[in-house]
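Researcher: Next entry in the queue.
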Amino acid sequence: MGAARAMLTPPAAVARRKVWGMPRRRGRPSWTRTGASQGGAPGARRGWRRIAVLAGLALVAGVAVVGAAAVVVPLLRPGAGSDVPRAAIIDQLAVTNANEQLIQSTETMLTQAGYRVDYYGPERIDVDLFARLPKLGYKIILVRSHSSGLTGTVNDATGSVNATGSLTSLFTNERYTVAAHVPEQRDRSVDVVRLAQAVPGVRTASGANAVAAPATTRYFGITPAFVSRRMRGQFDGATVLLMGCETMRTADMANAFRARGAAAVIGWDGPVTPEHTDAATTVLLRALVAGGASAPGAVSQAMQQVGRDRIYGASLVAG
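Model: Structure for this entry, 319 residues:
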């Protein structure tokens, strides 16, 4: 991806269907408008600030450690219970890389397989949505989002980035402010995140991809601690597709989702371009929903068909 595409467009400037209040459901295109997400000016601190650095334009993914790659968790097949199974599409990435064709084909695929589909557009993706997510009863959760596998500091004067460690963060579209989510900030359940472009072929001392100067807009990011401490309810065997950069680089996010009741988590072990992850998403869902494959089986099919990311070399991983 070119550096120009790594810059995050403010949500207000996005020209796409607006989704307010309730998620979009297939065949039910009516909306209830609610208040806007919290925003506000950044804090007064200057110079070096701690951030989560996005290693490349990506989406969201999660990992499940349970070292055994032989985790076989078939998805709930429609008709297996009295309730209609539900699926969620959380499309944070539409802020910078909208893909209406992917969303429409995914909704059609899931609906034809018997799932009721809820779509969450960029305006609805805030910290509270992730807090409520386990209680919403989804069997398939597709998180199409930017994400980060690094934490570090950025010098606002020079734009230089110093990566200091590994920490998976899932991007929300809620603007960061020091006055919001104070308890979560104190225990690192949420982090401050910015977009930055990964530099192909250039790695830091820790082995992570080096990144270019990040965008200035700051958002709240969801960390594994948030999944463990701040989410409410259990996922009850859901399959979670976290289709962003580096969501499976370490096991932190996967462990948290599995401990919260997810049956399987799929994501990338490095930076990935939006085009590549979208292509892989289609293959994954077709294998899981139409083919009845396990998570490892679906990953195997996707890797055979789309392979590693052609720029960053990332691979899909199931846990």
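Model: The CA atoms of residues 246 and 270 lie 4 Å apart.
Researcher: Noted, moving on.
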